[in-house]
Specification:
Layout lengths: L5 E8 L7 E5 L8 E4 L2 E15 L2 E9 L2
Parallel strand pairs: 1-5
Antiparallel strand pairs: 1-2, 3-4, 4-5
């Protein structure tokens, strides 16, 4: 049985003082997708792989903006 991938994502909010977040998720963020951090919703503007995957762990950076 295959173990699902885990994405450790560094979310950075562009153009605001919002602190962003580092979150684990089972789904890779996609450009134009909406994500929720706390009580706020943001649009994914860019996704970059930080380092190559280690087993089932993927390390990503996602730039966000308010929709």
């Amino acid at each position: 049985m295959k173990v699902p991938a885990i994405y450790k994502v560094s979310f950075v909010v562009i153009g605001e003082e919002h602190p962003g977040a580092i979150l684990n998720t089972d789904k890779e963020p996609r450009v134009n997708e909406l994500v929720r951090i706390g009580d706020r919703q943001f649009r994914v503007m860019e996704v970059q792989e930080l380092i190559p995957p280690h087993g089932d762990f993927h390390f990503l950076h996602a730039s966000l903006k308010a929709p």
